[in-house]
Amino acid sequence: MARDTGFTRADAENDFLRMRRRQVLSRLAAWLRREPDDVNIMLPFDEVVAALGRKGEKRLGLQVIPLDSIIGSVDRTRDFDRRFRPTSGRARERWERLARAQRRGESIPPIEVYRIGDLHFVVDGHHRVSVAHALHLRTIDAYVTEIVTRVQADGIRYRGDLIVKDYRRIFLDRVPLRGDARTAINLVAPWDYAQLSESVEAWGFRLMQDEHTFLDRATVAARWYTEEFVPVVALLRQAGMISTQTEAEAYLWVIAERYRLIRTHRWDDEVITALRDRR
């Protein structure tokens, strides 16, 4: 709980000044550490939804949500930083009015948020969230609408993370994996998803040529995973060729090296030995 001098107006003024000071110091610290520009930026709801792909929504009603789970906004990203500290003095009068009401124990209306995964984005109530942070509250009442997306929101911390999610969404459009197969494919670099898409589509084209039949994307994706990806990953593990990278990263590297060194799409002991020696 914030310090209380017993003078509500003075305490509210101090609350605002303290939040502004922390916002400025946070920007300075990020600059001194040479952190990315998006470290202290609130996540924009529209960009998150665009990256993840929107499937639908459902109203969940009034809930108590963790304050720290609110990391974005629908339309006020310039007025507050990632921790809902005011970025200027424009909203000071309104902010302090709410802080005084909160300190006096007056009833404060619930905020309104969108939920994506475990993350929340404010539709209405930015100042209330900011005041709650200033008073060191842990939860806040909110009317919640859940947004269902095609790609999960896990792993999103900063705006830059949306690039990876966007490329993953496009990859899953081209290679519509399901269930465990979908979960198993994880890449760190955004462009790797594009390269893997090309590789799977080329594998599917060769498969259709061999079998003299047309296969849709879902069938190609399922067969690529069970007939190509899983066996190759098993070979790489046996050969000790997967260390710090993900299975998908190891697979992507090895298929590129295989073709570059040996000009073949086959897998056998000769290929694995050549690739292991290459590492």
Give your account of this protein's structure.
It comes from Actinokineospora alba. This is ParB-like nuclease domain-containing protein. InterPro entries: ParB/Sulfiredoxin_sf. The radius of gyration is 25 Å and the shape is elongated. The protein contains 10 helices and 6 strands. It folds into 2 domains: 8-149, Conserved hypothetical protein from pyrococcus furiosus pfu- 392566-001, ParB domain, CATH 3.90.1530; 175-278, no CATH class. The longest helix is centred in the N-terminal third of the chain and has 25 residues, at 8-32. The protein has helices at residues 8-32, 45-52, 92-103, 126-134, 161-174, 179-184, 190-211, 217-238, 247-262, 269-278; strands spanning 43-44, 54-66, 70-73, 111-116, 119-124, 139-149. The protein has 279 residues and is an alpha/beta fold. It has a 6-stranded mixed β-sheet with strand order 1-3-5-4-6-2, sandwiched between helices. Helix 2 runs parallel beside helix 5 and helix 3 (92-103) packs across helix 4 (126-134). Strand 4 and strand 5 (119-124) form a beta hairpin.
